[in-house]
Every structure is written in structure tokens, then in C-alpha cells.
Amino acid sequence: MLTGAAVALPAAVLPAALVPAASPASGAAPGRPDLAALVTVRDAEAHLRAFQEIADYNGGNRAAGTPGYDVSVNYVAGRLRKAGLTPTIQKFSYPYWAERSDAVLARTAPSRASYRLGDDFVTLAYSGAGDVTAPVTAVDLPARGEGTSGCEKDDFRNFRRGSIALVQRGTCTFETKADRARAAGASAVVVFNKPGERGPVRGTVNRPGAIPVVGPSHAVGAALARAARGGGLRLRVRTDTVQGRRTTANVIADTEQGRADNVVLLGAHLDSVPDGPGINDNGTGAAALLAVAAKIEKLGDGGLRNRVRFAFWGAEEEGLRGSAHYVTSLPASRRRAIALNLNFDMLGSPNGVRGVYDGDGSTRAGTRAPAGSGAIERMFRRYFAARRLPTAESEFNGRSDYGPFVEHGIPSGGIETGADGVKTAAEAKAFGGRAGKVYDPCYHSRCDRLRNVDLKLLDTSLDGVAHVTQHLARTTVAVNGGARLGAARTPSSGLDRRGPYLVR
To answer: Which of 95, 201, 249, 282 is the most exposed, fewest CB within 10 Å of its CB?
Structure first.
């Protein structure tokens, strides 16, 4: 999730104009409570233990559509009620997809080789089912770099119908590549990773497909590309999947105080993947919201001039389904009333960084966020800088629930500590940990338990969440002038719904 992250300088070497004059430990106005001091990591840890227990008693996970998720919804709703809020459980349906048995990727000619599921390749989410043995046609593979393999209709001009399409990840979505390959008559699609990316492609074609789609690593894909150029390459691709629809829910709760036409929305996804309990991903984000919700009423009417909304999203791991349903189902007037969205997804990665979403577009990577997002980024960065805590840039790449808000022109921001990206040497120097290793080695795995969470990193993340929330609950002037005023927003373009299952 932290592609191309850049480490920020500590406050000691920042220009004075970038360091707030107020006490670095306080987001409070004089004489008012400090939310960052009120909310403690012990509060969050108690919720993490509850999420772990829920998973342990419900098949080892809290995935959408499972008993573990339903119990998580009940737990969150109960904690919100105890905090004095009135939660709404918003049910919705979404496309369901699962693998019934292990996929197969094997070379059958000109030589034979079998590839290891999980290490060498995985099935892309929403792949169709099938067992295909056929010749391979390489599709516009780049000589170097990312390229646009399989993105254009002309890429398949000379495609051999019935063959397996070999394409490289890059530029367009997996969905686009798979759709173009199927339209050209492909019997299966093999999308291998681009240079510089480790491991197989853990992605999604975003909606139920008709043909098998698998994602090998760059090393495997590059070897297949060389064999395809030599001629006679044949592969077997087998996927055993089931598709349908399921029903799950979001949990939403507002503070009683604050302007209903200028809502500060805090969001975190509540579901895990089926393979594990999801305590870092994303029990940490959900626990942070619950910890803040339990103390926010202490700010009083003067500190809650804007309404604060807590949103726990369902089926994020299925492609941002819950947040997308919420945003698109809102009447236009209520959507305009959302001043901004703060998103918190993975706040305690064991080899993590302190990633702040790139609201001002300074990384020139990912999607440019709507106007006002840069102000949110500055709030987080200034707070951490004043505490001499380094930060890293985290691009808006569509991998979490800010996606639907950005698409609808709503200013967005937040923090995250890293998923399956690899920590750089510069990041290891700034944050500690091990360079060359992933931020969270238990990402989307059964070992994503409480012991997988760096509680010290979670503690500072929680402080940042509370500090910025308190500031924005009092005023959103820096983000949007302080009022919606019925102004129309221009939706952003070019952002794909991906979730941690990537779509490109």
C-alpha cells in the first residue's frame, strides 16, 4: 500500500511555518479537553482482544457474510450505544466469490513445470471457473517497465482464439485486461506482476467473470514470456470458484452535537479476509474509531460544532462494497453535507511506517484527491512533526474505503502503516524495522492476530486520529471553508475500486 513512499523530515529541521505554534501534544482549544490524551492505546487494545475472540469462536475470521462478521457488527453497535450514540445498521447485498479448491498453474510444453499456489501465483478474485490446457499467446508485452499490455482492443488484433492470454500487470485494471481477452476469445488469462513488485498478483477482476484468471509473480511471468517468444508454450490453468450474492452491513453512528450540514466522517472497514481474523487489517482501524467514539462527547457543544460520523464498512475486502454502497445510496443533499472523509486502514503494522495519505498530490502517484485533501494531509503531518515523529507519503491508489468518496469529489485523508509493500532502507532508518521486508508479514493471513500488531505504532496512530478529529470537529475551514453551502462537487475520474484486492 505504500508504493514509492517518501520519508518526511522531523520537526527540528522543518521550516518554522510548518510547525504549529500550539502544544504538540494537544489539539484542544485553551481550556478544553484534549481528545488525544483522553483516548489511550489500552482502549483500542481492548477492542482488538474482542475482535480476536470473535474470530476464534467463529471459524478463525470475521469476513463479510460470515458469523464472525455478524458478531463483529453486534459488538460495534453495542459499544457505540454504550458511548451514548445511536448506531444504524445499513444492510446491503454484494457479489460473492470464493474458491472451492486449490487452483493449478502448470507448463505442459515444450517442457513441464508446476507452479506453487501462494508463492508463484494466486487466483484473482472474481475469476471464473474452468480447467483449460491450451497454447499461450503473449499480448503486447513491454520490453521493459510497466507498459500497457492487454489494455487496448488493438492489443488483441492477432490473438489466437482459444489460447491463453499472457499479459503483464500495468496501467489499466485487471478487469479491463480480462474483459478484452475474453472478447478476443481467450480461454483463460494469466496476468503476471510488473518489474519491481514481489510475489504474485493478489488482485480482483472486480465482478464475476466467465474464464479463469490467475496472477503469477514477475519472475514466473517473465520466464513464461521468454518461453512464449520461443514458440510452443502451453499451459494448464485450473480454477474452481463459486459466485453469487451475499448480504452484509455497515454500521453508522453520528454525534448528537454538531452541524448536520457539515459532517466529519471517520471510516474504517470492519471485515477481515476469509484466511484470518484481521486484527491489524483492519481491527486496528475499527478499534481506533471505537476508542474515539467513546470519548468524543467530552468535547461538548463548543468542541463539536460539526457533526462527527463513525462508519464501519462491510465487505471492503470484496472490493470496497460497503463504502461504495453508502456513498452511492445517499441523496445528493446528504452527500454534499459530508465535509470530508478520514479513512483508517491498518494502524499497527509490525514492520510499519507512519503513512499519511498524499492529499496534495506531491508524490505525483496514484489519483489526485479532491480539493481540500491537502489541508487534511498537512494537519496530520504537522501534528506528527511537532512530536518529532517521522511520516511517510501514502498515495491514493484506491486500495481502501476512501475510494468512493474521492470518486464523488469529497475531500479525503487519513493514515495507514503499510500492508504488503516492502520497507525501504530510508524508511528503516527513519522508523526502525527491517528494510527489504514487507510492512505486515501477516497481511491477509491467519497469523494476523493481536501479536501481529505493533502497539507502540498503534498508540501514535491513535493520537493522530484523535488530534485531527478534534480539530475538524471544531472547524473545517481549512478544508472546505467551514460550510457546504449546497456547492456541487466535481467527481474525480480515473480511480478504480480496488480494496486490498488490487484491480490493477
So the answer is: 95
